[in-house]
Amino acid sequence: MIFLRFAVRRLLEMAVTLLGASFVVFGAMYLAPGNAASFLLGGRSASPAALRAIENQYHLNDPFIVQYGRWLGNILHGDFGRSLQYRTDVSELLSSRLPTTLLLVGMALVVVIVLGLALGWIGAVRGGATDSGILVGTTFAIGTPSFVAAILLQGLFAVQLGWFPSSGSGSGDGFGRMLWHLALPAVALALYLVGLLARVTRAAMLEAMEGEHVTVARSRGVPERHIIGRHVFRNALGPVLTTAGLIVSTLLVCTVLVESAFSVGGIGQLLELSATTKDFPTVQAISLIIIAVFMTVNLLVDLLLPLVDPRISLGSRADA
């Protein structure tokens, strides 16, 4: 009952926050220089009558709150509007490009989780020169932005060595071909977060090793591998899981840079092109989707934390 009440409350908070975010997303585009009518004209001059006809067709001359209400109502019915640049429904653009981005983010997330947890575990358990080497490596990873990693990986492994394709997603050549095309972008996307997760995991495990329960377990002769797995790593999962929201949001945001560098053709590259050309409906739809995914991940983290860390009480959080 406490869990259900907490989940319902968090869902309501998420809905209110998402509503506020939608207002900001819709309004932010109209604060930028230029307007949609000038883009639709393609830079050509037009008579006042022609300009008014375009504004009437796209409801550009309606009051802001009316435009926002119409846009929000359409979104609730699954209609994201019509792209001003591609002259097609935004939902069709998203459906054709979203699978590529989801696969790219999924591959990068696997790299982050596997390498980040492994490096953090090894650094905390081994110590010494191994730990120092991991600290140096993770410092380099954290200090390398995604777009810099994309350029370096592309220049070395695609251009110089020719091991991987330098651009494209391979979406028309089968799933295996897509994995090959997206390998370098996934590594470029994951590099910074591998260093971050490794640092968080290492610090959390080192802190857990100093716990009284670990000392007691060792005094009782419990094998070290059981102590690390059951007592140290499990207690370190709380801080690790808390960073999940940051990891997912960073992956989604950095896809814009990485997809553009590799010409992947996902929603990240679409977002960049649409923002450049003032394609309001497309930018608003993608931005809202990214925000919704980020908030959903945070909700899942809040619900999973008590399962991995019994010290966290849903009851106390729900009543706070």
TrEMBL record:
Location (main, coarse): membrane
UniProt membrane topology term: Multi-pass membrane protein
Signal peptide: none
InterPro entries in the record: BPD_transp_1_N, MetI-like, MetI-like_sf
Any matching Pfam family: BPD_transp_1
Domain ABC transmembrane type-1, first and last residues per copy: 98-301
Keyword set, alphabetical order: Cell membrane, Membrane, Transmembrane, Transmembrane helix, Transport
A GO-annotated cellular component: plasma membrane
Superkingdom of the source species: Bacteria
GO BP annotations, alphabetical order: transmembrane transport
Gene3D superfamilies: MetI-like
Subcellular locations according to the entry: Cell membrane
Transmembrane stretches, start-end: 12-32, 102-122, 134-158, 178-198, 240-265, 285-308
Family label: Belongs to the binding-protein-dependent transport system permease family.
PANTHER family in alphabetical order: DIPEPTIDE TRANSPORT SYSTEM PERMEASE PROTEIN DPPB-RELATED
Protein name per Swiss-Prot or TrEMBL: ABC transporter permease
